[in-house]
Write a structure and sequence with these properties.
With 227 residues, the protein is an all-alpha fold. The protein has twelve helices and no strands.
Length: 227
């Protein structure tokens, strides 16, 4: 078994310190305490974020100095955009919650969603090692941990079918692979202490932005605050 580097441990600790699998909105979801309307509201906001992720990856791809990392980013983009698009699976879930494709595509971003998407756009234009740390490690590597908690209650507590929740199942498997590759790429591109510190900071920012995004959902749709 290969030795885990201190830098890898720092990256993992930065993710786990503010992991959105423990956010109050996630806890409500897992406890079966959300309505289908609230799940639809999540889907509408989440679409505003994930539908843009391939474009951010494409921006990073354009500045990527590493052929292996470019291959990975391209795989990521194609997986999201080709064939049955992942956002179409999200819309399928939203429709099962009672809203239309048009509702999802035209939803107004609440402030915390807008904050996350603006941060991602900004991050995609940073130097490669920072962008990869923020987007691939800080954000994407969290997905399996969140969806492994979200998926079972969708079937046992909320009564959705496997077909309706395919979006979650497909991301648990895909993003475990993506997350690990993301860690490897960031490690490879951060040979100096300075770069490692920049990467860890990007991961911390990413986890905080995702946490605030989830907290915004909780405030808007569970606590019913005016946003």
């Amino acid at each position: 078994m290969s030795q885990v580097s201190p830098f890898r441990t720092q990256l993992e600790n930065a993710v786990n310190a503010r992991h959105s699998r423990m956010n109050p909105f996630t806890e409500k979801w897992v406890g079966g305490d959300l309505t289908r309307t609230q799940l639809a509201q999540w889907a509408c906001q989440h679409y505003q974020y994930v539908s843009q992720f391939p474009r951010w990856c494409a921006t990073v791809y354009g500045e990527c100095p590493d052929a292996d990392a470019r291959d990975f980013l391209l795989e990521n983009i194609v997986e999201e955009e080709a064939g049955t698009k992942h956002v179409d699976l999200l819309i399928r879930f939203a429709e099962a919650c009672g809203v239309t494709r048009a509702d999802v595509e035209t939803a107004r971003q609440i402030p915390s969603t807008r904050g996350l998407t603006a941060w991602c756009f900004e991050m995609s234009n940073k130097p490669f090692h920072i962008a990869a740390a923020g987007l691939l490690v800080g954000l994407e590597s969290q997905v399996p941990g969140i969806y492994k908690r979200n998926l079972p209650p969708l079937k046992t507590r909320y009564g959705f079918t496997d077909h309706e929740v395919e979006f979650f199942a497909i991301h648990i498997e895909a993003d475990e692979i993506h997350g690990e590759r993301g860690y490897q790429i960031v490690e490879r591109h951060c040979p100096t202490a300075e770069r490692q510190a920049e990467a860890v900071d990007a991961v911390r920012q990413a986890t905080e932005m995702r946490w605030q995004y989830m907290t915004g959902l909780h405030r808007a749709y569970v606590l019913k605050e005016d946003m």
